[in-house]
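User: Hi! I'm working on a homework problem where we have to compare a predicted structure to a textbook description. Could you give me the structure for the chain below?
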Amino acid sequence: MSLTAPRQATRFGVVLGVVSSGVAMSNLDVFIVNVALPDVGAHYGGTSLATLSWILNAYAVVYAASLIPAGALADRIGPRRAYLWGLAVFVLASIACALAASVWTLVAARVVQAVGAGLLIPSSLGILLTVAPPERRIASVRLWSAISGLAAAFGPLAGGLLTQLDWRWIFLVNVPIGAVAWVVGLRAVPPTPGRATAARPDLLGAGLLTAGIALLSLGVIRSEDWGWTSGRVLGCLAAAVLALVVFVARSARHPAPVLPLGLLRLPAVSPATLANLVFAVAFAMMLLSAVLWAQDVWHWSPLATGLAIAPGPLMVPFLAIGAGPLARRWGAGAVAAAGSVVFALGIGWWVLALDTDPRYATGLLPGMLLTGVGVGLTVPTLVGVAVSALPPTGFSTGSAVVTMARQVGAVLGVAVLVPVLAGGGTGSFRLGWWVTLALSLVAAAVCLAIPRPRPAEAKA
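Assistant: Happy to help. Predicted structure tokens:
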């Protein structure tokens, strides 16, 4: 037995490394692309922020809509196979992004990249939760989140360094990481059983969700140019509502819906998912506004911007693990709510302290550190409490629900920020930060609705 345990620990470590590589690429990609966005716009002839936002939002919309079908597919064919397919798609799409001849070609390649990420994330967690012993599942989720956070922490710095060479390197960096993970994963990840009898994923439902979120985002982003009362904006919003209503109705009837409504009836999953969505709106607004402030107001380079933003994400991996004992003692809802409040304090600092004089140590840095603490306490805690409530047969699908909520929130965050900043000047940034602060407090209130687990569950 003494020989078996080390072998199992070694195997678990290798599997954790392989599955975390895909998660790391996805998180690295988000931060790298944000930092490089102004340079991408300059490369494509001074493209407007409203158009550039689709480089972020097309990825996030398709990613969100593909997560549940991909999770269901992973449950059907096995997480290992789904993960390896996701790696291949993500890497090939990254090459296409680097070779894009126009901004809309880049957006199209980002859509394909999002499909790969949609396969990667739920299947990676599905593999991890299948391999991990039951008593280590919550700890494994926190470790998975911590590695994601560590990748995010290096994202801004990597984005700045790579953009100094050429913005196309922000996508090419995925190629060696993905190739190594694919080769090692092919040999090291054990076969994970699928459920061939499971119903096929609802692709029409995924299309309805994609259309609904995309139309909602389009209407909000273009509201400044078209006018809130214009026929085009009202038409986009009405079509979005119709698509989302039909989507929910279809999810209630389909045997393998994009949104499994039954999972949302689990006591912890519903409030954790909603809190994830609202907090993600605030997070997306925070991240993009910080990048644009540093580059457009202070006129810093991408490298300087990446270095300036990095301390916030760097707080996340340490807190992702350290928040575990706090959640067991005080409850996940209380810890996540406290994190959301700390995040709000960071945004409040920017409202009061930032001006056109580029004072980093007393201006941007304290807000970055506070928001980093807030993210580290909130996001891993919400993911952990939601996933721990899932049945073993639905790990991939259930974890995708939580991740989908975060991606939808990211789309809405960018969509809301773009028209707010369209007015120009520092006053527009402050208005955006007030909205961000309010949303983070709403997320804190939702977190408090998460029930505490029974004593037997808390020990797990």
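For your comparison, note the following. Residues 4-43 form the longest helix (40 residues). Residues 59 and 114 are 5 Å apart (CA to CA). Good luck with the assignment!
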